[in-house]
Amino acid sequence: MLKYTVLIGLLLTLCSCSNNKVEFADYSNLPDGWEKDKAVSFTFKAPDTINTYDVFINLRNDERYPFSNLFLIVNMEFPDGKVITDTLEYEMAKPDGEWLGQGFTDLKESKLWYKEAVRFPDTGSYRMEIFHAMRKNGNIDGVRSLEGVTDVGISVEN
């Protein structure tokens, strides 16, 4: 009887797993802070030109991150040289200061939507550059070195 219970539990676990297939995933480590003018860059090949994909920005932060939100500027360069630029804002913490990311330690991981149902129109390599655009209230100049962001990544999933 115990064998059947374990087997049924295993089958339920396997069936409940996400059907999303990760086509590309990579991280860049930022051990000494994220400099304002330093892009985190990723290059990946288009999986195909027919299906749609979700593109995420993955971010790890620790308790040193001083803000409750995050502004990013993302440039996506197509194989033909065309560039799309987006300015994005993400909420990183609740009003009471509790981090929204996943994780049991001080390090939290956030999977942030970048683009949903993207169809890559061209075959070849795409390049994404991600800059932070954080500034303190009342300051015109941005934060030179953003502390607390330990890793930035992207993933392309269908």
Number of extended strands: 10
> What is the count of DSSP helices, taking H or I runs of 4+ residues?
1
Distance between the termini: 39 Å
| Beta-strand fraction estimate | over 45%
- Helices and strands: which structural class? mainly beta
The CATH architecture can be given as Sandwich
The helix/strand order is: HEEEEEEEEEE
Which residues sit in consecutive blocks of at least 5 with pLDDT less than 50?
A: 2-16
Write down the CATH topology.
Answer: Jelly Rolls
Morphology call:
globular
CATH class: Mainly Beta
Number of domains: 1
Mean pLDDT: 89
Biggest sheet descriptor: 4 strands, antiparallel
The strand order across the widest sheet is: 1-10-4-7
How much is the radius of gyration in Å?
A: 19 Å
| Share of helix, binned | under 10%
